[in-house]
Amino acid sequence: MFGTGISLERSHRTATLADLPRIVEIYNATVPSRQVTADLEPVTVESRIQWFHAHRPDTRPLWVVEANDEILAWLSFSDFYGRPGYNRTAELSVYVDASARRTGLGTYLLSEAIRCAPCLNLDRLLAFVFGHNEPSLALFQKFGFQQWGFLPGVGLLDNIDRDLVILGFKIET
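User: That's the sequence. What structure does it adopt?
Assistant: Structure tokens below.
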């Protein structure tokens, strides 16, 4: 469909509930790789409705990028640890459809997240990435995210212990 070398228009919009099936489809496509998520089985749209509604455009947005009326990528800002003292910090998740990987969509979304963070009253961004997910680690490190934490072997995927790297970024104002 899109593949490497295809230039996609770079713009995003706030996700709507009608987008949730495609968001879940992109997410579920990563489950078998054991690279991106600790979910071992695909999730359902119904199971993600509460997660969807936890996103608020003014503080914790959920964005999608689409081309030709098809969502190709999404980024979410999520609460970190769920207590008010952490409101200035958000966890980022970036997912790109396999057909649009290596086209710069992840780079675009992450740059927009950093640019928009101050408007969302955020000055710290986090990413939780498996230690063996080198492409994601490289993406976040390209923007200056640094290792703020390391949890050895906390994930068990197909009987293999997996490390979790906590990457952090401080927004300079």
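The two ends are 40 Å apart (CA to CA).
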